[in-house]
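User: Assemble these into one structure.

Assistant: Restating your components, then the assembled model:
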Amino acid sequence: MKTRITELFGIRHPIIQGGMHFVGFAELAAAVSNAGGLGIITGLTQRTPEALAAEIRRCRDMTDKPFGVNLTFLPIVSAPDYPGYIRSIVEGGVRIVETAGNNPQKWLPALHEAGIKVIHKCTSLRHSLKAEAIGCDAVSVDGFECGGHPGEDDVPNFILLPRVAEQLKLPFVASGGMADGRSLVAALALGAEGINMGTRFIATREAPVHDNVKQAIVAASELDTRLIMRSLRNTERVLRNAAVDKLLEKERSLGANLKFEDIIHEVAGVYPRIMKEGDLDAGAWSCGMVAGLIHDVPSVKELIERIMAEADLIIRTRLAGMLGAPGP
Ligand SMILES: Cc1cc2nc3c(=O)[nH]c(=O)nc-3n(C[C@H](O)[C@H](O)[C@H](O)COP(=O)(O)O)c2cc1C
């Protein structure tokens, strides 16, 4: 399958693995890239720019295919050493960066001068057009279904993707709710040129996370996610668990008076315990509604090949079969 996204990134299949905190290590990124997709290392999971440089080297040892690095620009006061992380990316010869969070404009010149292509993750049409205006190379459009931060507009992909297609000239991928060949074909029909997946890639053999996390995703249905931190305008979709119930109870009782400090135990620094040790109730962790469509833990290669084969079958057989013979 050839799309503007496969061409832009030099990949075989239009499937991207989005950056994921404490999931996007070299093992997963390399597995996705080796299977013909675009694997992405999560920059900020590495505590220092030096650690990111080492992770990039580790990934390079595992694949000779293109892979990317995610840089998430967080709305926090004490910013991480972004110039240092960018130096590690440039010196590590990485050619693709996925940016997310705040506007990446400030960092684009340094990335573009190094010949790096930038795909910015956006949760709205407004932000997608802004990404285009400031010179990004592609956009990842994250609908309301997505795991992680869906923004504050709550527009699901069935509306958001065609809205973006109406106005954006840049190529874009559909993110949020993507799991299989059906998702890919639907995303293409709505105007995207590929898909970005988060939650689906966690439930794979190569994802370097505790098996409890993978099994929790397989067991979860589409009804099992919750939105937290809405009143802080930092909404996050997470899997429901004991910590999330406690957090939501605090949100209900404190209402508009809620401050980040009130929920810090449930959200800050909890990822290592969850992802590495499998202590699922240690806090809130991102998960998409797409968990309802995830029923197994295949290898990354099996998953990607299955998606492409299913998409092929849907397009050539199911959809083509619905059409009559072409008219005169
Ligand atoms: C556990 C987890 C951690 C994530 N961490 C990040 C992150 O650090 N930076 C980022 O830009 N997106 C992050 N995301 C969002 C994903 O990159 C992706 O956009 C999202 O998962 C897509 O929705 P889906 O889960 O329905 O596929 C995370 C998602 C999950 C599930």
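The beta strands are 15-17, 39-42, 67-73, 96-101, 117-122, 138-142, 172-175, 195-197, 225-228, 236-239.
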